[in-house]
Amino acid sequence: MPWLFNLFLAIHIGAGVVALTSFWGAVLTRKGGPAHRWWGFVFSAAIYTAAAQALGMGGLSLVWPLAMHPQLTDAVLYRGMFGTMMVYLGLLAMSMTRYGLVMVSNRRNHPGNRHWSMLAVQGGTMLAAGVCLAHGLYLLNRNGLVMEPILMVMVALLGFGTSTTYFRYTFSTPANPRAYIPEHFKAMVATGIAAYTAFLSVGLIEMFPKHAFNPAIWAIPTLFGLAIIVHYLRRYRPATKAQPAQT
């Protein structure tokens, strides 16, 4: 099966490169304009493709961890890292992308965000996060305080937070007609953060194996992404109504 893993990996890398470049096309073009929509479509399609290949690679790594990664030796540890966590991250990327797109398509129909398919995607992501968390805690108990299981726990908690935030907005009453815009930004930029984090980690595994799972390095795309989110949240913040003059 290594040939199938390598096929998944080749498609995954190709789609990832498209996602990494088209992300900036969507960020830098006028929001809502034709160019923004086009770049957003390319970015979303690339993310879906890359995430689907991650599911395939993760599934193979769950069953045959050392056959898929012959340079490694600890089957139990890397079944978690390249199996459980990769499947979970693939689902998380898909759920964030779908959420971001649905926010725009349902901008005038907030109840449509509660469609069963959307709830199933978010619920499945939370379930996968729970499995990743449990596997990470097991590996922490087995291997001690090494970075691989610590990272599994960290990304699992991120997924819980993300899905909880999405469920809260979905079942709330929007504060204003433009409330979907921040939700769209947050979801799509978070997907870009995930894409850059995955790209960076794969490169580190090849070039600097000892630093591949260093959370400080993984945090770099997150910091840049948060800066982008904060910028656009400020830019699209609803204007406050002027207070009546005191007499």
UniProtKB/TrEMBL annotation:
Keyword Transmembrane listed: yes
Record has Transmembrane helix as a keyword: yes
Membrane-spanning intervals of the chain: 6-27, 39-64, 76-95, 116-138, 150-167, 187-209, 215-233
UniProt keyword list: Membrane, Transmembrane, Transmembrane helix
Name this protein carries in UniProt: DUF2306 domain-containing protein
Organism for this UniProt entry: Sandarakinorhabdus cyanobacteriorum
